[in-house]
Structure prediction request, 244 residues.
Amino acid sequence: MPEPAPRFDVDAVVLDIEGTTSATGFVVDVLYPYSRSRFEALLSERSGDPEVARAVAQVRELTGDPRADAEAVVKTLNAWLDEDRKATPLKTLQGLIWSEGFARGDLVSHFYDDVVPALRRWHEAGLRLYVYSSGSVAAQRAWFSSTPEGDLLPLVLGLFDTENAGPKQEPESYRRIARATALAPERHLFLSDRPGELDAARAAGWHAVGIRRPGEPYYEQGVGDHAQAGTFDEISISTTRSTA
Prediction:
């Protein structure tokens, strides 16, 4: 059985988003349909945008179809969306669409009630806060800047995704993040609802806590032998380095 979350002596907390800080249902029920309805317009109106062009090239590479036109690319994106596939070009294009939606006020992000007070408390205590999500950095930036509680980006020191860090279930991705933060692996605490991600973080020398919220996809599966918490309030963190 997993143990309750102990007290951690770390310098950085790295946050997953879906199922951890925020409801997966909001992403699936609100953000996914929003992006689905706008893929075609994005590829048509911003085909010359280097970020869009790179994502389209990545779709063609992943599908093995170097001549895929916009219609075929949109079809692939929608299929990946149906599969909830964590494909980097899909996340890149979603991020661009969501950024525009948040900027226009069409979208406002969701956070569980316990999250924002905890983030502010940890930030005030001197902890470094980072985000590591399968959603693109652009999407993360929009998510944290357009919340019901205002702009939370000043609380966050860095944003990591599958493009600048790597796949979330590979230990090397967490080693890469540790190199970017210039902190020893054991000075990081990763919070996620997905056992595979927690396993990868621990394999890289990090501390990890599984967040289990009722109604989330991984709630019934549990978090394996990792420490667990139902809310951020249950996690006790100290920034004082041990002298032992």
Q: What stands out?
A: Residues 88-104 form the longest helix (17 residues). The two ends are 30 Å apart (CA to CA).
